[in-house]
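My current task is to audit a protein record that another person submitted. I have pasted the whole thing underneath without changing anything:
***
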Amino acid sequence: MARKKISTTVYITPEQNERLKLLHDKTKVPVAEYIRQGIDLVLEQYHDRLPGQLSFLGAAVPRTGTGTGTGGQPK
């Protein structure tokens, strides 16, 4: 089941827009999906700066998935 999406506005360069459109034309994957995947990559890269959920023993609970609902790519 697809997760609910929140609408937002982002500003990208004309070059980013052109390359994303070319990628979409070749793969038929929506540009919005590539933007969500990019956000997930940044959130993963900076995960140590985000608050985490603690277990009863005080150790951080491992995170699972990327949050996109698309299965994510293995690292």
